[in-house]
Description:
By secondary structure, this protein is of the alpha+beta class. The protein has helices at residues 14-21, 25-33, 50-58, 74-90, and strands at 11-13, 40-42, 45-49. The chain is globular.
Amino acid sequence: MTEKPGRDPDVLTTAELAAKLGLSPQTVRRMAHAGQIPALKTGKDFRYSWEAVREVLRQPHHQPGDTANDNDKGAGHRARQRARTGAESAD
C-alpha cells in the first residue's frame, strides 16, 4: 500500500481498520455508530486512530447481566482479541 504524502499512518479508513482487525467494513462501521470504538465522522464514512482503537479494544468490556462465556461475546470481543494478538507480535 502506497501512502499519500503527509498522511498520518495512525489514521485509518474503515476498510484499513477492518483489514487490521479481521472484521468486515460493515462490522467496523456498526461498532463506530454504536460508540464501541472511537471514530471521527468524515462525510459519509469514518476515520479511526489505530492507537485509540487498539487502546479501547484492550479494555475489558462488561455490561450488567453479561456472562463470562467467551463463545457469546461477538465481534467486539473478537476484535479485541485480534488487536491484542497483533499488538503483542508488533511490540
